[in-house]
Amino acid sequence: MGLFDVFKSDPVKLTPRLALAVGLLYMMASDGQIESEEIGQLQSVVGGDQELINTAVKYLRSVKYEQFLTDAAALLNERQKLCLLINMADSLLSDGRAEQSEQQAFGKALSQFGMTEDGFKAYFETLAIKNNRSVFLNGWICPAGLFRQIWPHSKTFRQSFIGP
User: Is residue 19 within 8 Å of 80, Cβ to Cβ?
Assistant: First the structure.
C-alpha cells in the first residue's frame, strides 16, 4: 500500500438509475457550459437525490463518455436505453440551441444504443412540440432551423416534419 492510497476511492459502479443521471450530465456538459434550463431538467428527472447527483458527477469525472456509452449499452435494457435517449434529447433541447458538440454527443448515444435518427424521429418531434411554448403565445411556430441544425444531413427526417 502506497502512502497516497488512502486518498483513492473505489470506482463507481454504474447502475441503470445512475446511467440516467450520468447521461444527462454528459449531455449538459457536452457544449462546455451548463445552463440553468439543463440543471432544471436534471432535477426534474432525478428529483432531489443529491447523493445520486454527486455520484454521477464522480462517475463523469473518472469515465470518458465513449466508455460510459459502452457500459450503459451493455447494462440497460431496450426500454431503459430509449428512456435515457429521450431524456438526453430533452436536455439537449431545453436551452433552445443544439451546439455542434451536443449534436455529436447525442449522435454517439443514438448509435451506441442501436437507434437511428429515423427511428428516433417521433420522439424528437414530440420533444420539440413540448419545448415550443410559443404555441401558447402566437400559435405554432415550427422550429425548422433547430431541426436543420441538429440533423442537417437527414433530409428525410426534416422533410417529414418541416418540409423541404
Answer: yes
